[in-house]
Amino acid sequence: MPVLILRPEPGASATLAAARASGLMAHVFSLFEVRALPWEPVHRAGVDALLLGSANALRHGGAALTAYRGLPAYAVGETTAQAARDFGLNVVATGKGGLQPMLNALDPAHRRLLRLAGRERIELAIPEGAAVITREVYASEPLPMTPDLAALLARPALALLHSGEAAAHFAQLCDEAGIARAQIRLAAIGPRVAARAGTGWADIRCAQSPDDAALLALAARMCQEAGSEHMLPH
């Protein structure tokens, strides 16, 4: 069963390499292209720490980001944390379930946060006594379905969903193309992402933790189960 990777680059290529190394028949069909947005920097003296929900903020933030080198940073996951370290930030916390849990456990010295975010992002509940200034530094522009992707979706396939935006966009593209949801399996990186895909799919499940390794492990199990079902006598 083909496994479809829908996330944008450079993450798509990293997922492809890991998927093929684990024996999956994976293909990349990025449904988004990430581009930089113009943004107004905040003076470093007014920032105690950075809040990073994606490595894309560092890839596309531009030259203005150099003003914040050396500052503490809260990163949503290990990939973002590593990008922050490579950039010269002092990562003080790495999340496992989104930004909100880290906000709820802020260092008391970090009360003025600069959130470098995408145009599409999750709203956060700001703890009492803290202030978050948000700057949109990148956007994920949706792309159309390619003929090659449509051809693979004409038969049973499994799609990996790395974001809520990808889930919603993929569902819309399938419906517009007249592709039956009932023959497509979905592996989502978390419950919020799965919810955005809607209903009617052959199967939809969530990874045990919000990371690529867990998502690919789930995809491998789903492919194996689908293969076993196909071999059963009818």
Automatic annotation (TrEMBL):
Biological process annotations from GO: tetrapyrrole biosynthetic process
Pfam families: HEM4
Tree of life domain: Bacteria
Tetrapyrrole biosynthesis uroporphyrinogen III synthase domain sequence ranges: 17-216
Any one GO MF annotation of this record: uroporphyrinogen-III synthase activity
Protein known as: Uroporphyrinogen III synthase
Protein source organism: Novosphingobium barchaimii LL02
